[in-house]
């Protein structure tokens, strides 16, 4: 297995480009697992939970997240976008400024044909809904 490390500028365009790469890699991994007869379950049925302790972890692929049963927004959004694409639905990972208030921190979500999905929130990330609406109104 090849391990890669990248220095990604902390701006919206760079983050979304890098997450597109992770999403496309996840598509390949989903297809390969299915071809081998050992498909991954859908993200929301996988038993995976958002874990803030993973917050500064390296971005991880579907097999890595599935193995540990935890993930952060980048990996969860890339998994969800990949599985939507593989089932024939348009999807891409988008980033918005994090609600943490820390400059240069981003939160990853999925833009799909039904709107915007936030896999992290669905999988256990605590969120201040009122604050999220105020912040995201400017960026969505």
User: What's the tally of helices?
Assistant: 5
Terminus-to-terminus distance = 37 Å
How much is the radius of gyration in Å? 15 Å
How would you write the strand order of the largest sheet?
3-4-5
What best-fitting shape do the alpha-carbon axes yield?
Answer: globular
Mean pLDDT reading: 87
Structural class: alpha+beta
Indicate the percent of residues in helices. Answer: 40-55%
Biggest sheet statistics: 3 strands, antiparallel
The percentage of residues in β strands lies in: 15-25%
Sequence of secondary-structure elements: HEHEHEEEHH
Descriptive account of the structure:
The protein is of the alpha+beta class. The chain has one domain (12-137). The chain is 41% helix and 15% strand. The chain contains 5 helices and 5 strands; from the N terminus they run H-E-H-E-H-E-E-E-H-H. The chain has helices at 12-35, 62-68, 73-86, 119-122, 129-137, and strands spanning 49-50, 70-71, 91-97, 106-112, 115-117. The longest helix has 24 residues, at 12-35. It is globular and about 45 Å long.
SSE inventory with pairings:
Blueprint: H1 12-35, E1 49-50, H2 62-68, E2 70-71, H3 73-86, E3 91-97, E4 106-112, E5 115-117, H4 119-122, H5 129-137
Keywords, separated by commas or semicolons:
140 residues, alpha+beta, three-stranded antiparallel beta sheet, two-stranded parallel sheet, 5 strands, 41% helix
């Amino acid at each position: 297995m090849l391990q890669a490390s990248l220095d990604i500028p902390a701006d919206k365009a760079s983050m979304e480009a890098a997450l597109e790469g992770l999403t496309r890699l996840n598509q390949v991994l989903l297809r390969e697992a299915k071809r081998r007869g050992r498909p991954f379950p859908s993200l929301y049925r996988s038993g995976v939970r958002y874990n803030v302790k993973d917050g500064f972890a390296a971005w991880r692929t579907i097999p890595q997240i599935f193995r540990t049963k935890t993930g952060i927004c980048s990996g969860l959004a890339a998994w969800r976008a990949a599985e939507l694409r593989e089932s024939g639905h348009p999807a891409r990972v988008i980033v918005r400024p994090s609600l943490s208030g820390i400059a240069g921190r981003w939160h990853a979500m999925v833009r799909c044909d039904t709107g915007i999905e936030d896999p992290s929130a669905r999988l256990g990330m605590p969120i201040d809904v009122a604050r999220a609406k105020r912040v995201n109104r400017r960026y969505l």
